[in-house]
Amino acid sequence: MSPSTSPRFFTEREVALHCSKDSCWVRLGTRVYDVTSFLRMHPGGEALILRRSGKDVRGEIEGPPHRHSENARRWMEQYYIGELDMDSGTEEAQVGSDQRHVT
C-alpha cells in the first residue's frame, strides 16, 4: 500500500474469514496483513502461520519463544493491507469500508 493511499479498514470478523492457504490474513495489533503469498516462504513453515490466521500475531512476533528480528518486521510491511476497524461493533463497520462513505 502506498503511503499516500488511505488505509482500508476491516472488522475482526472480516479478518477472521481469511484463514486458508488461498487467503491468509493476520493482524499485528490493529494493522492487517495479507500473508497468503508469504506462506510457502516462512522459515518456520506455513502451518505456523495458518494456525494463527485471522488472529492477532503480536505475541508470536514479539516472543517468546522466538522474537522476530527487526528485518522480519520490516519485511512484513510489504504485506500490509489496512487497519482493524476499532468501531467494528457498530452496524456501519459491518459494511465494507469502500461502501461506508458513499452518499
UniProtKB/TrEMBL annotation:
Single annotated GO MF: metal ion binding
Q: Give start and end of each Cytochrome b5 heme-binding domain.
A: 7-85
Q: Name one GO biological process term.
A: fatty acid biosynthetic process
Spans traversing the lipid bilayer: none
Q: Which Pfam families match?
A: Cyt-b5
What pathway does the UniProt record associate with this protein?
Sphingolipid metabolism; galactosylceramide biosynthesis; Lipid metabolism; fatty acid metabolism
The Swiss-Prot or TrEMBL record describes its family as follows: Belongs to the sterol desaturase family. SCS7 subfamily.
> Could you tell me what this protein is called?
Fatty acid 2-hydroxylase
Q: Which organism is it from?
A: Champsocephalus esox
